[in-house]
Automatic annotation (TrEMBL):
Gene3D superfamilies tied to this protein: 2,3-Dihydroxybiphenyl 1,2-Dioxygenase, domain 1 (3.10.180.10)
Annotated protein name in UniProt: Glyoxalase/bleomycin resistance protein
Family matches, as PANTHER family: BLR2520 PROTEIN
Organism: Zhihengliuella salsuginis
Taxonomic classification: Bacteria, Bacillati, Actinomycetota, Actinomycetes, Micrococcales
Domain VOC: 7-131
Pfam family, one: Glyoxalase
InterPro entries to which the protein is assigned, alphabetical: Glyas_Bleomycin-R_OHBP_Dase, Glyas_Fos-R_dOase_dom, VOC_core
Length: 145
């Protein structure tokens, strides 16, 4: 079986106004944040084992090593693996399948994450990550931190 599998754990959307997003989702819709990092990102659990991240656009670009890559459209899909070595394994598999490595495996900006970014042949950006603070309980609830 493929190391990538058929799953996405995070859906990350770049947003030019994180405060407006917070007002809309939290204040107006009543969504409960899983984690809220002011000025950077808000995470919401949207399904068992699935999290939506609303990421400040400037921070999103920095995470990708500069301005978002062509075709990224401010969106990443994330696949989490159990080890740091697993990040490299999946990146190599995706590259061999025609993916383009945007950022090689490296330590992330927060939370002890180790990650890389790979664009598929159509420009869809995947973040491949090992996050020691990421856990999915038996009931599907995500625990961050």
């Amino acid at each position: 079986m493929s190391a990538l599998g058929q799953q996405a754990h995070f859906i990350t959307l770049s947003t030019p106004d994180l405060d407006a997003s917070r007002e809309f989702y939290v204040d107006a819709l009543g969504w409960e944040p899983l984690l809220d990092v002011p000025g950077e990102i808000i995470f919401f659990q949207i399904a068992p084992g699935t999290v939506l991240g609303l990421f400040d656009a400037d921070k999103f670009g920095q995470d990708l090593g500069g301005a978002p890559a062509a075709g990224a459209s401010g969106v990443t899909l994330a696949h989490n693996v159990g080890t740091r070595d697993g990040v490299g394994d999946v990146v190599r598999q995706m590259e061999a399948a025609g993916g383009r490595v945007l950022t090689p495996p490296e330590d992330g900006a927060f939370g002890g994450i180790f990650h890389a970014h790979v664009a598929d042949p159509n420009g869809v950006v995947w973040e491949i990550a090992h996050n020691p603070g990421w856990t999915v309980r038996d009931d599907g609830r995500v625990v961050l931190g």
